[in-house]
Amino acid sequence: MNKEPKFTDTQKPLVAIHCMVYNHALYLRECFEGFVMQQTSFPFVAIVHDDASTDNSAEIIREYEAKYPHIFKPIYQIENQHSKQGVSVVRLINEAILKTGAKYIAMCEGDDYWTDPMKLQRQVDFLEENPDYSLSAENATRLYIGSNKTELFSTLPSRDITISEMIITRQFATASVVYRSGINIPSSVKRIYDTLLWCIIAQYGKVHYENIISSIYRIGAGVTQVDKVAWAHKIIELNNLLYATIKIDKKTCVLHDKEMLAILLAGIREALRKKKYADVRSLGVYILTIGIVPWILLIKQVVDYKIFQRR
C-alpha cells in the first residue's frame, strides 16, 4: 500500500490526483484517507489546491502533507482565485500536474471520497491495456448532506459512453474519473465545467464506464443558499461553451437535460419575484433558442421535478 513511503519523491508519478478544496474541513480526512489507502504498483501524488479556505482546511492539508510527503503536494492560496475574473483554478492545478510528468489524472474534490482501495490500480490498468480510450469512469453513491440519504449515482450497466449521452445528462461522478494527461483545453475556455471537460477528453479517445461503486459523491456540502438567477446564467454559459467547443447542434446541448431546463425556469421565476426583468428577458429568450417544440415538451416534464419541490 502507498500509506508507507513505498515510492520516493525522486520517482515520477504515474498518476496525479486533481483535488480542489474550499472550506471542506468537515470532509477532508475522509477524502485524504481515500487517497492513502490506494493499493498500487506505481507511485502517485495528490495535487491539493486550497483556495484560501476560511475554515481549518489548510491545517488538515498540512497535517497530511507532513505525514505523507510522498503523496501530498499542496498549493496554498492566500487569496481566493475562483472569485477572480479570468482566473481558472482548474488551469492552475493542471499546470502543477503537468510539472509532475504524470501520465494520468484522477479526479476527487475535497468533499467527495474514494471507498475502494483498488480504484486507481483498476482504472490505470484499463487505460494502459486500452490505448484507444482517453477516460475511465466508475459508479458512485450519492450521499445527501443533512438527511444522510444515499442512492446509486447510476443504475446503468458497464459500457462505452458517447459525447451525446454526456451532454444530455450526467453519466458518472467527478470522483470516479481517471483520464489521460496531455488534454488540450482551448484558451477561449475560461471556466471549465465537468461536462465540458469530459466532452473535450472524449475527442481524444473513447470513454468507458464500469458499473463498480468506488466513490462517494456528496450533495449539499458547503452549500447554504443557491442564487437561482446566477445559476441559470451559469447554465447558459456552459451551454454556449459546449456549442462553441464541441461543435454540435445547439439543440442537443444540456438544455435537453430536464434538470438543466428546470434550473433555467427556476431562475426566471426567481428573477420575476425580484423584479429583475432584464434577467427574465435574457433567460427566456435563450430557452426559446432551442426551439418552441422541445421547449413545450420539456416544460411538461419539469413541472413536478424535485428542483421545484425544494423551492
Runs in which pLDDT lies below 50 for 5 or more consecutive residues are 304-311
Q: N-to-C SSE series?
A: EHEHEHEEHEEEHEHEHHHHH
Structural class: alpha/beta
The count of domains is: 2
Helical coverage, percent range = 25-40%
- Identify the CATH architecture of the largest domain: Alpha-Beta Complex
- The CATH class designation of the largest domain is Alpha Beta
What share of the residues does DSSP label as strand, in percent? 15-25%
Mean pLDDT: 83
Q: Mind describing the biggest β-sheet?
A: 10 strands, mixed
Shape: globular
CATH topology call of the largest domain: Spore Coat Polysaccharide Biosynthesis Protein SpsA, Chain A
Radius of gyration: 20 Å
How many individual helices?
11
Instruction: Give me the count of strands.
Output: 10
Explain this structure.
This protein is of the alpha/beta class and 311 residues long. The protein folds into two domains: 205 residues, Spore Coat Polysaccharide Biosynthesis Protein SpsA, Chain A; 82 residues, no CATH class. It is built from eleven helices and ten strands. Strands 1, 2, 3, 4, 5, 6, 7, 8, 9 and 10 form a ten-stranded mixed beta sheet that branches. A hairpin with a 5-residue loop joins β6 and β7. α6 runs parallel beside α7, α7 crosses α8 and α8 packs across α10. The C terminus is likely disordered.
Task: Name the features.
single chain, 311 residues, alpha/beta, Spore Coat Polysaccharide Biosynthesis Protein SpsA, Chain A, 2 domains, 10-stranded mixed β-sheet, 10 strands, 39% helix, globular, disordered C terminus
